[in-house]
Amino acid sequence: MKSRYLPLAATILIFVLAYALCYAQFPSMLSTRVIGNLLTDNAFLGIVAVGMTFVILSGGIDLSVGSVIAFTSVFIAVVLANTGLHPLAVFAMALLIATAFGAAMGAVIHYLEMPPFIVTLAGMFLARGMAFVLSIDSIPVAHPFYDTLQSFYWRMPGGGRLTLIGGLLLLVFAVGVLIAHRTRFGANIYALGGDATTARLMGVSVGRTTIGIYALSGLLAGLSGIVFSLYTTAGYSLSAVGVELDAIAAVVIGGTLLTGGSGFVAGTFVGILIMGLIQTYIIFDGTLSSWWTKIVVGVLLFVFIFLQKGILWLSARKAAALHHAHGS
Amino acid sequence: MEKPQEPLLSVASLTKSFPGALALDGVDFALRAGEVHALLGENGAGKSTLIKCLTGAYRCDSGDIRLSGRQVDPRDTFEAQALGIGTVYQEVNLLPNLTVAQNLYLGRQPTRFGMVGTRRMNAGAEALLSQYGLDIDVTRELSSYSVAVQQIIAIARAVDLSGKILILDEPTASLDAQEVRMVFDIVRALRERGLGIIFITHFLNQVFEISDRITVLRNGRLVGTRNAADIERLDLVTMMLGHELSQETIAHTAARKSEGEVAYRFRDFGRAGTIEPFNLEVRRGEVVGVAGLLGSGRTETAEVIFGVRPHDGGSAEKDGRQLELSGPRKAIAAGLGFCPEDRKTDGIVGDLSVRENIVLALQARRGWSRPLPRQEQIEIADRFIDALDIRTTDREKPLRLLSGGNQQKAILARWLATNPEFLILDEPTRGIDVGAHAEIIRLIERLCEDGVSLLVISSELEELVAYSHRVIVVRDREHVSELTGEEINTDNIVRAIAADSQPEQAR
Question: A326 vs B146: CB contact, 8 Å cut-off?
Fold first, then answer.
C-alpha cells in the first residue's frame, strides 16, 4: 500500500474496531438512529473541520474558527431579533462577513509574512470580541423559517433521521473531497504544504492560494455558525469555545500530517465520526463522566502523533535504502 | 558537426553588480541549438549570477540577451519559462508529497468544467516520461523514487514547459556514476532534439564526456570559450584557476621539511559518498595544504576529520593512541579546531559580541555547567584582540559590525583560545582585504613555529605554495597525490589537479 494511505487506513481501522467494541456492549448502537444523531450532533464541528483540513494541509493553522462560529450565531440572532430580514438574507450576510474575515487573515499571513498561528490567534480574539459587542446575553431565535428548516429530514431505513444539517455535513464533505483532489486549487494546497518555496518556483500563486484557503476556512466557519444557530436556536457569545481545537484534533485523528502536505478530507470525516462515537458511547453507558471524551481524544491524538512520526521515519529509511540500492 | 549558425541564445557584455562587488563584468556567451555547453568556474566566478540573469531571478545592470536574434529581458522565472528557458537545479525543485503526474502538470492540469481530469493527466505523464525511457507508476508520490529519477522528472517538466533552452545547474552533484550515465543519456537525446543545453558542474570528467563547447568564467569575467575536443584538461584547469604555467613560482620562507614527530595519523579515514578513504599524517608544527577544485572533496576532508559529517570507516590516532572522532565535541576534546569556509553561515554568531564569539569554543569545551568567569573571558578576549590585531572599537561590539577580515580573525581567535594542537582552516583568506590576507598568512607561519599542526584548504595556489610543507591534491572526492619539498609549486599543483583520472566506475 502507498504510504500516504497508511494514516487513513489506521483511522478507518480504529473507527471500525471502536464501533465493534461499542456494538458488542450495546447492540442497539448499530442503528440508523444513532448514526443520524451522530451526524446531526457533530454537523457544526464536521463542517468547520473540513476547512481546518485544508488549512492544515497547506501547512497552516486557523485558531479563529470557534470564535467565528460564535460571532455568526450571535450575529444571526441579533439581526433576526431586531430587523424584519428573512433568515436566508441574514445567512448570506453572515457567510459574506465570515469569508471576508478569513480572506483578510490569509492576506495578512501572506503579505506581512506572519505565522498563521499568531494571525489567527488575533482573529480568534477579534471575532469573539465582536460577538460580545453585539450582545453579551444569550439571544433565542424564534422564527417560523427555523421551524420549517428543522422539520426537514429524511427518514432512513431503520427509523433514523437524516436532518437538514446532517445532510449538509455530508454535502460539505463531498464537496471538500472534490476540491482537494479534483481541482487545481486543491493541488496547490497540497503543493503549498509540501514546500512553499518550491511551489512558487513551480508556478503556484502562493498569495492567491493562501488567501483562498483562509477564505474557505472562514466560509465554512460561517456555515458552521449557521448550522450551530439552527442546532441550538440561539446565539450566545460564549458558545463554541475551543471548537477550533476539537476541529484540529479531528483533522489529526483523521490522519492529516500537522506539518502539511499529506492527508485526506475523507480522513477528517472518519475523525469526526470517531469523536462522535466516543460521546455516544458515554451517553449509552450513562455512568461515565463526559470528560472521558477528552481523555480518549487525548490518547488518540498521541497515538496518531506517534504513528505519523513512525511513518515519516519509515519513509526516510525507505528513501535511504532506495538510494543505496541504486548506489551499490 | 553542423555548420555555424545563428546562435539560439547570445549574451553580449552582460554586467551585474552587487553592493561592493562586480559579479559579472561584460560577459559574452553564445549557445547554439543542439549543443551541450559547459559553464565552468570556481566559487564567485559568476556562473550562478549569469544563470540567474538568464532565468530572470536577477535583472542585469547592462548588456544584451538575445534569443534567436530577438532581444529579451526576462523579469521572472515564469517569463523565462514562457520564452523557452527552463532550469533544473542540483536540489530537485519538485514537491515530494505530490504524485509524479501532479508534479509534471502542477498549475496546468487538464480540466473539464473546473475539475481536474486525473486520468488524462496520468496518461499524459506516462506518455511524457516514456519519451525519457522512464516506465514508472506516475500515481505514486515523487518521494518514492530515487534522486536520479526525480532529476529526470524535473528535466522532463522543464523541457515540456519551455522547450528551447535547458539549464542544468549541477544536476549530477548528488548522483552516483550509474545514475549520472542515465541522466547523460537523456541530455544527449535532448541535444539530438535540437535543444540548447547549458551544463554546470565541478566534475571535469563529466565536462569532457558530454560537452561540445566549454566556457570558463573567472572573477566575473569571461576567460574564454573553447571546443571541448580541442582543449586539454591542463589548459582548462589553468583557465579556471588563472595561473599561467610559465609563471615563476613564488619563493617561500618555510623550511620544506618539518622535523616534528607525527602527531595525528588517519588510516583509511573516509565516508561513503563524501570522501574516499584517505591516509594522512600530520606532524607537529607542520602545515599541510589541501588543493583541488571546488567540489573536489577539499571541504569534505575537513568536515569528515572534524566530525561535522562523521566518518564511517578507518581510524584516527593521536601520538599513537586511538582517537574516537565521531562528532565535533569529540574532535574539540582531542585538540582539534576547525574554521569553516563560509564564516557567515557556519562560523560567526553575528549578534554576539566579539568577546562572546572568541570564548565560544573554549566554553563549549568546558561544558555549560562550568561557565568561564567574566574576568577570565575579558582577559582572553583582550589577549587575542591584541595578538591578532582585531580592529574593533570595543570588545563588546556585535561581531557582525566588523569587517570580513576581522571577523575571520575573531574566528581564528576562537579556536586559538582552546589551545588546539591541530587546526583546520578552510579558505582562511577568502573575501578579506590584502592587508588582512598577509596577516593571516603570517599567523599561520607563527602557529606552526609554536608547534601547532595545521591543515589549510585554499584555492589560492601561491598562498599554499608559500606556507605548506606538504600539499595534498584532491580530485573527484579522492586524495590523488601528495607533493613534498621542492615539488611544491603552482605548476605541479595545477598538473596534479588536471591529471586525467581513471574512467569513472560505479561505486
Answer: yes
